[in-house]
Amino acid sequence: MTIHSAVIQKLLSTNAHLGRRVAAHHFKIYTYGARNGVTIIDSDKTLICIRNACHFISNLVRQKGKFLFVNTNPLCDDIVDQMTKRIGCGADSSWRLGGFLTNSGSPKKFRSRNKKLHLGSTQPPDCVVIMDTERKSSVIFEADKLQIPIVGLVNSDMPWDVYKRITYPVPANDSVKFVYLFCNLITKTFLVEQKRFQEVDNKQLSLTKDENRYFDTVVLVAFIGEESENLKQTMTSSSKDETPVIPYESLDLTSDDPVETKQLLDKLVVIKLNSALGTKMGFSGPRSATEVCNGLSYLDLIINQIESLNSKHGCNVPLILMNTIRTHDGTLKVVEKYSQKNIDILPLCQNRSHPVSRGRDSEDESVLFDHHELFLSLKNTGTLEALLLQGKEYILVVKYDNLGTLIDSKILNHLIQNRIQYCTELSEMAQMPGKNSLEKSKLVDTGNLWMNLKVVKRLVETDGKNVENYPLSKSFDRAIDVNVPHSRFQPMMSTSDLFLFQSDLYSYGDSLIRNSARTNSLNPCIELGPEFEKLSDFQSRFKSIPSIIELDSLKVMGDVWFGTGITLKGKVTIIAKPGVKLEIPDGVVIENKEISDPSDI
């Protein structure tokens, strides 16, 4: 048994994979599917997040950072206490009172409210580790306000407003067994770093690639309880078992020969998972048919891009729309208008005899991705065999409504040249301005999967049962991840995203084009309140979308209405008071302001 298999088994034994009945939309990048109405968390994703969190903690330990561990579950008190004693971190109960971080400079105020309360150091910690994020959202808000990195366990129904503030989320069920395992990992991380660097000068605290691999192995060994005497052998096997992450920049350029380019693209098929309804945004049909800009929907944009590619290179890249029972009929009506396009469009409906499990209130959300159902649908409709007969070798599965660049010949060429069977695209969530300098960028799944068609056929015909019950990436012998540019991950999930794409920050040709006038490589952070959630409300509250070329962040809450020709710059917060209609006049320029009254403009 490989070390990865042992780790996955250990995670499963703690019930870490069992989420809630509901999976929030932003959480679905961590899900594996659903069974019996319960969200299944992908153990591979949990493992990746644990490693990222442990790497961050180890980096902070080397810099002698201060930690605050927060837990309100009495069943886990002894576990957390034993961990803090072993790693030499004192337990501080200050967090039990609201404002323990933001008001830490005025301890007398706390003593007057609770004389028995013992306050620890008034210095804020460098990291807050929260075992039960659902119970201590106030701590998360306070730490985020002070720009303190947060490591926390998150479950599938966590609200976006809380989730987005957690720097290193670990998707898992916060059962006592998993909390014990997580605390054990943190303990191992502390002890390893304290031992390896206690006699090393601070100027030499940089890990080489081999040392990083050594650290990963130590953390993985903590899962299965093996002793360090077998560490070298384990390290060798684990390094082979891990999925390598390839930088996009390191991929070879494709040939300029038009014949070779055509032959390359002719081997590709694009499959768009078209399971999401637009109900949450007030749209009755498939969400992919929602208008994005200039009368064009997401489906229009993806079809125009593939058609342009086919016309330019003389190739034939078909598009398969993988619908569900809820979206199939609506999609068939939409597809009729593309009959004259230079692109083969094949709408399919996932196996009706094996419907994908859904949560109770999932009408507004996309059906969770089930690769087994996808493979069965391709096989049972005869599509899989037909594609192979046409000489197709790879499928690009697009899980989300991603407005970023879709087909990338560099990735396809790398897969073919190196005989890669499976590839996931990852993109960095870059560090936001003002965040703690110790915080590292995180890699998130863009929802783009590349798979070899011949291997898919072998899996579905000979290993069907294993494919259904085992993480998808582990069903392929040769798998990689590619760290792609931000331009390839532009999801359109809500009206806040729609605000970005309809602004002057983007324009549309054959694909999404970012305005070169913006010097910041990051997009502005947009947060529109529930008053803007429905598409009709969003459209009526904006006479025109403001100019946001120099905007860093925008938060709008309450009964707010926007005129035309407005320019937003820096950090802008607009929150209307209850019962007050706040109108932003035409042509105004708002820069680094908090507005709650017309007099503030």
From TrEMBL:
It is an enzyme of class 2 (transferase). PROSITE patterns: RIBOSOMAL_S2_1 (PS00962). Its EC number is 2.7.7.9. GO terms for cellular component: small ribosomal subunit. Pfam families: Ribosomal_S2 (PF00318), UDPGP (PF01704). One of its GO terms (molecular function) is structural constituent of ribosome. The keyword Magnesium does not apply. GO terms for biological process: translation; UDP-alpha-D-glucose metabolic process. The keyword Metal-binding does not apply. It catalyses: alpha-D-glucose 1-phosphate + UTP + H(+) = UDP-alpha-D-glucose + diphosphate. InterPro entries: Nucleotide-diphossugar_trans, Ribosomal_uS2, Ribosomal_uS2_bac/mit/plastid, Ribosomal_uS2_CS, Ribosomal_uS2_flav_dom_sf, UDPGP_fam, UDPGP_trans. Keywords: Nucleotidyltransferase, Ribonucleoprotein, Ribosomal protein, Transferase. Belongs to the universal ribosomal protein uS2 family. Belongs to the UDPGP type 1 family. This is UTP--glucose-1-phosphate uridylyltransferase.
